[in-house]
Amino acid sequence: MTKIKTSNPPLLGTYLLKRIYGDELYEEISGDFIEVFRERQKKYGNFSASLRYILDALLSIRNIDLKSQNSTRTNNNTAMITNYIKMALRVLQKHPTNSLINILGLAVGMGICLMIYQYIYFESSFDNFHSDVENTYRITKNYSRNGEDEGTGVYSSYGLGISVKQDVPEVKEYVRIHPQYGGAVLTNPEHNQPYKEDDMLFVDPAFLRVFDFRLVSGSTESALGSNQNIVITEQMAIKYFGDNDPMGKTLRVDGGWAAGNFTVTGVLERLPGNSHLQFDFLMPINILLQEHSQYKDTDGWGWNNFVTYVTLDKSADLGIVASKFDTVIYTYDVDLAESSTTVNIAFQPVTDIHLKSDFSGDPSTNNGSIRDVRIFSIIAIIILIIAWVNYINLSTARAMYRAKEVGVRKSIGAFRGQLVSQFMVESCLVNFLAAGLAVGIAYLLMPILNDIIGKQLEMSLLKDVTFWAVFLAVTITGSLLSGLYPAFILSAFKPASMLGSVKKVAKGGINLRRGLIVFQFLTSILLISGTYLVYNQISYMKSQELGIDMEKILVLNGPEVNVNRETAAEKMKTFKNEVAAHHSILTVTGSGAIPGKGYNWRTGMWKFGQSEDDSQSGNIVFTDHNFINTYDFEFLAGRSFTEMASEENGFVINEKSLSVFGLGTPEEAIQQKLVVGGWDTVRVIGVIKDFHWNSLKDEHSPYLFSHSTSTDFLSFKVDLSNIPETIAHIENTYNEVFPNNPFNYFFLDDEFNNQYQADLQFGNLFTSFSILAIFISYLGLFGLVAFAANSRIKEIGIRKALGAEVSNLMFLLSKEYLILLLIANVLAIPVIAFWSRSWLDDYAYKINLGIEFFVLPGLILVVISLITVSYKTYVAAKSNPVIALKVE
Predict the structure, then answer these.
(1) What count of Cα atoms within 13 Å lies in the side-chain half-sphere of residue 418?
(2) CA–CA separation, 791 vs 789, rounded Å?
């Protein structure tokens, strides 16, 4: 039998049909015309079928009025939209479970996105409130030697600001900031109550002109004009003066870098939370430069302890200005010009400091992370997509229940465009109801977010007109994205198929649903693995051996009030002896720094006999003779300090210093010399095993301990059996020997672990958002399972009547989801591996990615999925088969 070659209908006939009926009606009737054409093609051949197709098109001219009727119908928008809304509300009421899942899922998803957006909005808004912020920069310096990069820092010498203002015309203003390293003790002489304060800055008078911190009292021009002036915040005004006016009152400063009586000449409004500069007191930088021995007799280029900001002219070219700054440095810094070190200046926009600063020793204590902001942005998008995916899945899955409705509407003359409009109105209604609930959810959950991140955020973005425009656009976009596909799926069904069997209808969109379910499983696995990774890394860092014994160490801030240099050493010896006499005190030691709290001096040094070109940076900590014993460092060679300082009491160094300074083995290093800071030569008397002075984010670096009488910190190794008694004994002795000094103590292990606070906050946020994302995913999965169980109720009844076990029926209904979950697990493996390694690159000491990181998230998801699926499938499987067989 010869097979007739088929072809498409003639273009002339198709053209006539479109002209007569219009595009929308043609889409409705074209299927019937083509079906008749194919039948004629098989029976009479292509030529005859084509002629009859054109003839039918010509005869259709009698129906041309249908085109105008359709136009009239579709233009009656107001009445139609009102009707669509009524029908949408009826649909929501008719299927309350489905409606609740859709609205709740979208509302929770949008609410969490609002919270994340508020967090990102806050993190991205730092320092935007300054009036000339777009032209204000922090100076950074990149160091290199012999072509090797040695890192970038934010500290510079105090001569830099003055010199660039004189020599670079593009510089409009400069501000130098010198932190009050180690803090100071402040007292209101009228009450004589001392307080230890750490958040103090020495600044130039231009500080209050460059940075817009609002003064409640005082003048911007004169507040920092005299060396004995001090500016305080509102909180400090209340702390020291209560309800009295602090202006003109005196505050006594003891310890720190500048002591004496200072007059309050300004009170600042509470500092904005989105400022990278956080402080309680401002003092004139001139008192530091004119009276402190470290600076007053220098040329301004020897000590890099200052952070310098500049305001440049709007037309300034940063590259050209940076090269001018480089010229200034090499002109005035003679030592640098004669060395092999290369310094290059760069400008960091003030608005970038909070999120884009990873410089060693950055004085900004509240810096965030652009990496974290990007991760949470991705999570927000994922959560919103998951919520929309739920809507699409449930809408397409329930298509069979809407099929007869669509069939009846089409059979009585409804057009596809009208049906699409109806379903889009339903989508918009659900999305806008969810959007309204989302704002309430965000308000309710904001206090929880504040507790996690340790900040007091408000839903300030709701006051931003731009936000509402974006929020409306996202809601409309979500309505379109989540509503268009279900709308076109439902409106495309043919009336004949919809009014007959529903089995074919039920298959509509099944492949898309499966793909979206895999997407939800995949994102859930990634979020679980991310949570597992973060907490494992934090636990790893906190549980590692540090090479230092911190568990029994209580630390006390050393005395600063009424400290007489001539009698200080004797009084400290008395204090240590009296404290140590108590049975609970094992050892006592004094030092200038402690683990987790920086060092006393970072400077260049090199092995004696080599040149300055071989200089490397080392961190020096000042300690007394008992420090190394108290902290239980492990000696590899040599000895510790003796009680009496002498030339023999040189440096005790760590292992890392051996390789950095080329000192050979621990035994070979003993009695070798190091040139420190270019002018002092010190012997190595001991080598100790490497330890973690800071968190495990940082690699080992050279640490050198120098014998000193420094007592900025007093460390006590104590018996933990009776902590209250021990603390009371130390406090009583301290108050007797050092009266009028505040008694501030802490346990070192707790303080050391505070270095991981930012990581813990990130982990808590990540976990919270992940749990909510998984909840939304499985809310949708629950709805799909409920639909699947209901749609197969008759099949379940037949299988039970034939003797099927409940377990077999549960497996039958669950296996599809388990297969999709397996696919998601396979797809997740390379993503987990890539993301985990990228995230761990920021840590010097990190966990190894074992097989559990790839298997455990999937197993957790299998358990959650089985719990979700089992409930509905078990109910369906246990139902009475007689009742099930009666279901139509």
Answers:
(1) 24
(2) 6
DSSP states of 359-402: -TT-S-TT---HHHHHHHHHHHHHHHHHHHHHHHHHHHHTHHHH
The pTM assigned to this predicted structure is 0.79
Kindly write down the DSSP assignment for every residue of 36-55, as one continuous string.
Answer: HHHHHHHHH-HHHHHHHHHH
Give the rounded distance of the alpha carbon of 578 from its chain centre: 48
* Residue recorded with tokens 């103590």: 745
Question: SS3 letters for 143-182?
Answer: EEECCEEEEEECEECCHHHHHHHHHCCCEEEEEEEEECCC
- The two tokens of residue 23 are 């595009």
Q: How far apart are the first and last CA of the chain?
A: 45
CB 828 within 8 A of CB 532: no
User: Quick one: tokens of 560?
Assistant: 């600063």
* 711 pLDDT above the threshold of 80: yes
- Is 183 in contact with 198 (CB distance < 8 Å)? yes
* Higher per-residue confidence, 631 vs 4: 631
Identify the burial level of 552 via C-beta atoms within 10 angstroms of its C-beta, where 0-12 means exposed, 13-18 middle and 19 or more buried: middle
Question: Please, are residues 678 and 604 in contact by the beta-carbon 8 Å criterion?
Answer: yes
Question: d(Cα 179, Cα 306) in Å, to the nearest integer?
Answer: 8
Which of the four pLDDT bands, split at 50, 70 and 90, describes residue 878? low
> Hey, which residues does 651 pair with through a beta bridge?
684, 706
For the packed helices 399-411 and 370-397, what is the interaxial angle rounded to 10 degrees? 60
Measured on CA atoms in the order 586, 587, 593, 595, is the torsion positive or negative?
Answer: negative
Alpha helices in 644-756 (DSSP H): 655-661, 666-669, 723-737, 748-753
269, 302 Cβ separation under 8 angstroms: no
Contact 715, 631 (CB under 8 A): yes
How far apart CA 663 and CA 683 sit, in angstroms, is 12
Query: What is the C-alpha separation between 26 and 20, in angstroms, rounded?
Result: 9
Query: Between 757-791 and 416-453, two packed helices, what is the crossing angle to 10 degrees?
Result: 150
Q: For residue 67, what pLDDT band results from cuts at 50, 70 and 90?
A: low
Q: How many degrees, rounded to 5, is the angle at CA 19 between CA 18 and CA 23?
A: 45
- Whether residue 700 contacts residue 690, with contact meaning beta carbons closer than 8 Å, is answered with yes
Structure tokens at 698: 């940082």
Contact 313, 157 (CB under 8 A): no
Q: What angle do CA 388, 79, 481 make, to 5 degrees?
A: 15
Q: Which two tokens stand for residue 533?
A: 């990774």
| 3-class DSSP state of 700 | coil
> Among candidates 785, 623, 828, 787, which has minimal Cα distance to 705?
623
